[in-house]
Amino acid sequence: MTHFFKLVLFLTVLFLVVDSKIKDKGKNKKSKLKSSKVFHKIPGIPKFIKPFPTTGIDQSAAQDGGGKKSDYETKFIGQWEILNNQSGVSAMQIQLMPDNTINVYDTTIYRLSRLKYPEGMPCVPFYDENLKENKQDCFAHGMEYTLATNQVRALTVKTDPWCSCGGLTPDGTLVVAGGFGDGVKTARYYGGQKNCKACDWREYPNKLQEARWYATQTILPNGEYIVIGGRRAFSYEFFPREGQPSKKPYFLAFLYETTDIDENNLYPFVHLSSDGNLFIFANNRSLLLNPNANKVVRTYPVLPGGSRNYSASGMSAMLPVTFNLAETEKIFLPALKDCGRLVITDPNPEWDTEEMPTGRVMGDLLNLPNGQLLLLNGAQKGTSACMLECTTQAIPNGKIWVAGSNTHDTYKDDDKFPTETRVEAFSPPYLDPNPDVHRPTIVEESSDKKLAYGHNFETQFKLQNMDQKFTKQDIKVMSKAPPVPELAPPGHYLIFIVNRGVPSQGMWVHIQ
Ligand SMILES: *[C@@H]1O[C@H](CO)[C@@H](O)[C@H](O)[C@H]1NC(C)=O
Ligand SMILES: *[C@@H]1O[C@H](CO)[C@@H](O)[C@H](O)[C@H]1NC(C)=O
Ligand SMILES: *[C@@H]1O[C@H](CO)[C@@H](O)[C@H](O)[C@H]1NC(C)=O
Q1: Which atom of ligand 3 is nearest to the CA of 285?
Q2: pTM of the shown model
Q3: Which end of the chain is more exposed for a tag (fewer CB within 10 A), N or C?
């Protein structure tokens, strides 16, 4: 029997997995291993040969993120459960927060939800265009969902965040740009304070320079956010400091060139490359932008086979970055049946095309704690606005949190597809109850949670009666944090210990 351990950093903001190879710290670690009794000798990690199943969901998910196949197999194909039958707000957009709550927000346009503001929270005044009169909106369009209890707390959303974009800043503040109607130029902030028991949205309308409906925002190595594109917005700008206006928009011809009658350049796919430049994909074209110099560094070959746009027809995620290779890969799993893969750091990049098991639209592509990619949701036929879409998020216990979906322009109860306010969880095959003995448990109290770039950090974990040697022993592993913020911008990340494909519960760490 061989045992090997691997640390996978699960980057919630970028959907990017970084594999820190313990092997590379061979020298350091060996000396540490000898000098400390709690350290057990951990064999080096086998070479990354074929890290991921290349098509859809691999049933034998009992495979570690790479290298040698694990020595246990599972027949468990996953399981669904309902966490909450009536959460109140349909989850059009969500963000997992470092305090293990999920911030949920929906459009305000229906002036309706299934969650009323409780006493003490004022209703929101608005002008009803149809009735031509001033009215009060007493329904919450946002809520805080606590994962531990599955309970919700109403939040006040005033300007419409419909198809806005968002992300966490290094200090854990959720910042959201744009939306619809009165919200197109709003800069929103939530949390980031010490005690967030009573946090609510802080909205600043008209602080963005251009209307950002269906724009994409991405965190940069310096911790700032860039906001790119949107409907008829052929530019990018930088997310302003709270209360300040954004400085100026930068015209990006590419966004104009990739728009067409179907507006196939909405929600462009943007990923930070390991060289600090931004990979931007829209429609069927892509380029590398230096956001600081406002310069297009290079362009990539056109992706054949039709236009891709999120969420109507495409999904995109970054494959793992291994520090020693410093290589970033990119994968698209489009509306169509084929799936393009591009090495964006290759000097002569070309699209590799693979077939998915089924054609799929409006799905979600998630990086799992064990390094696999999961395709979830979606339909096999037809597209619609982002209203139909549900939202998904891998949560610290390794399950996938799933909520939302609304095919109506209101909250509808009686229909073949009523407005969805239930919250469900999907347990991927790695949560098979049988190999639970293989599941490591991180000892949070004696693990490092504050990481510094390029520095070693220690994680302590327990393994249950796996074999005599490890029984009830604590194991410590020393790993190296990402060397540079280009690989993992500053902020909060979930870290998992993965043992033979079975991940522990995630622990939040912070890197700066
Ligand atoms: C949700 O409703 C179903 C059917 O009424 C019930 O069996 C289940 O226990 C409920 N779940 C929760 C978490 O309330
Ligand atoms: C997105 O792509 C699909 C399929 O390629 C296309 O039908 C649709 O019109 C596109 N645009 C939008 C805004 O959905
Ligand atoms: C790329 O998309 C544009 C605009 O939709 C289209 O005119 C062009 O033919 C496409 N190119 C390829 C190679 O598919």
Answers
A1: 1
A2: 0.80
A3: N
Q: Which tokens is 397 given?
A: 């216990």
Any ligand 2 atom below 6 A from CB of 383: yes
Q: How far apart are the first and last CA of the chain?
A: 38
Which atom from ligand 1 is nearest to the alpha carbon of 85? 1
Tell me what pLDDT residue 348 has.
82
Nearest to residue 502, comparing CAs of 474, 463, 459? 463
HSE-up of 509 (CA within 13 Å, CB side)? Answer: 31
Residue 290 CA, ligand 1 centroid: distance in Å = 51
Among 284, 285, 286, residue to substitute to test ligand 3 (most atoms within 8 Å of Cβ):
284
Q: For ligand 1, say whether the CB of 85 is within 6 Å of any of its atoms.
A: yes
Residue 82 CB less than 6 A away from ligand 1: yes
Q: Check pLDDT > 60 for residue 259.
A: yes
CA of 448 to the centre of ligand 2 (A): 45
- Which has the closest alpha carbon to 430: 501, 504, 506, 505? 501
Nearest ligand (C-alpha, residue 214): 2
Mean pLDDT along residues 190-194? 87
CA distances from residue 203 to 159, 160, 174, 175 in whole angstroms, order as listed = 8, 10, 12, 10
Helices and strands in the chain, H and E counts? 2, 38
Average pLDDT, the chain: 77
Contact indicator for 270, 278 with CB cutoff of 8 Å: yes
The pLDDT of residue 46: 30
